[in-house]
Amino acid sequence: QKTKRLALPPGPKGLPIIGNLRDMKLSGLWFEARKWAQQYGELVYLNVFGQGLLFVNTYGAAVDLLEKRGAIYSDKPKMVMAGELCGCENMIGLTPYGDRLRRQRKLMLQALGANRISSYHPLLEVQTHNLLQGILSSPDDPTSIIRRYTGGLTLLIVYGYRVLSNTDRLLEMASESLDILSNRIAAAGIVWIVDLFPSLKHIPAWFPGAQFKCDAAIWKSKMEAFVNEPFEYTKQEMRQGTAAPCYVSMLLDDAALESKDQCVDSQRDFDIRWTANSLYAASFDTTVSAISHFFLAMIQHPEVLQKAQKEIDAAVGNSRLPTFSDRPNLPYVDAIVSECLRISSPVPLGLPRAITEDNVYKGMFIPKGTLVFGNNYNMLRDPNVYPNPDEFMPERFLEDVDEATAKLRDVRNYVFGFGRRRCPGSFMIDASLWIAIASMVSAFDISRSVNEHGEVVEPDVVYDNSVFTIPRPFKYDIRPRSAHAVKVIREAKGLSD
Ligand code: HEM
Question: 368: closest CA among 99, 167, 75, 31?
């Protein structure tokens, strides 16, 4: 009772009943959240129709709350609309904290932990060659090529499925499902009436105001296909003895070996099916965000591209594309990867958590049930850690600083979230982003595009997505560095070889 009299963390004033509804932007909420952080400090609290929202804005507070108090800060909100009505309740990002989550995270880390990543290197290299070959054949449509590369990479690694065209059915299905998931079902700022009043889930779909039930029914069938079809594809390939080594086939094989009756039990089947889908869902938009910001940075900073090309020419030469064995000799490319992760901050406010008990932090009261957002966007722009934080400056990672400062500047502390829900794909993305960036720098010149009047076109950077920092497609010019580069790209081993 005493704690309940403590003040809530500070934040913008809301209106009666609707609270801060009008402060919640449908897209680019992270820009507002950074302004609030600058105005109110390390914790900011808002409410929408009485639902508390807490933004954790500094690394210190994130460690104290999301890591050290992880036992009560790692749960997920119960979302009637997204979970029950739209069929997403078993996605890892929505799974409550408990035994099931621990079991499933163990499975993902078993397959994607630091010590397993080198086994994916050959697949990553081949998929990257395909990306370069795709850009070569359609230089005017790099956005579709990137989406195909990103979706194709995950379909290959998770399901052993090869995407050979931009109009591949599974790729299109996944892309549509993800768009519905992040921009319709789980859009930040959208408050579903049924989440506020769960009993409304029982009203019939024809009832006035029940449009959400009709939408949910359509979206649910799409989500089910998204979860089941690629998984059944791998199982079918395994039955025929033609499955490629991948996340699903590897874990189903292990499970069959462990099981006494040689058949995978239903719990294991369920865990593999849903973790596989979550890996796909979680890697697509995040990778598109990081690579889009790489292109943006290259056209805005031609000197960075030239410096990286010089480094690659000296360490790798121009008779082949870079491979993972070159990584230790390419520190500037590594610095570009870190700076792209920092500036893009692909999941800027993390994925919302729900706190399971009333809690007090530095004299502020945080009520049970509050939704908690780890504002990594703000942490990655902390001027004390990253001077001139809005500038793209890979050099900041190569400065000669003491060990403590270098550790503090490691973007991986922030960009992948915190504690018990930290991103399990961090090692995979570190590898896939590095090889993609190193290869594109080695083979292409990237610059602003020129319109039909010969004028340089400045990219117009607009964000529509509400969860991920994905810029709207913008124009740029990408072309092979030389005729020799074309030959090297064409000769590199691709997916269809
Ligand atoms: C640049 C790329 C990526 C970034 C910046 C990123 C960042 C994040 C963040 C911030 C979270 C929320 C963590 C939290 O609650 O504290 C998360 C969760 C997650 N990420 Fe990533 N991610 C990336 C790529 C990937 C990839 C490639 C995969 C899979 C291969 C993946 C799989 C997941 C999964 C399954 C979760 C949910 C974990 C849970 O709720 O327990 N992510 N990611």
Answer: 75
* Residue 415 beta carbon below 6 angstroms from any ligand 1 atom: yes
> Residue 260 has what pLDDT?
62
Size of the chain in residues:
497
Ligand 1 closest atom vs CA 347: 10
Is the CB of residue 469 less than 8 Å from the CB of residue 104?
no
Q: What is the mean pLDDT of the chain?
A: 90
Q: Is 292 in the pocket of ligand 1 (CB under 6 A)?
A: no
Cα–Cα distance measured from residue 488 to residue 466, given in angstroms and rounded to the nearest whole number: 40
Q: Annotated binding site for heme: which residue ranges?
A: 423
pTM: 0.92
What is the Cα–Cα distance from 31 to 25, expressed in whole angstroms? 9
One-letter amino acid for residue 130 of the chain: N
Is the C-beta atom of 349 inside 6 A of ligand 1?
no
How many angstroms separate the CA atoms of 277 and 293, rounded? 25
Ligand 1 nearest atom to the CA of residue 374, by list position: 16
Tell me how far CA of residue 271 lies from CA of 16, 118, 323, 338, 389, in angstroms: 44, 24, 33, 32, 40
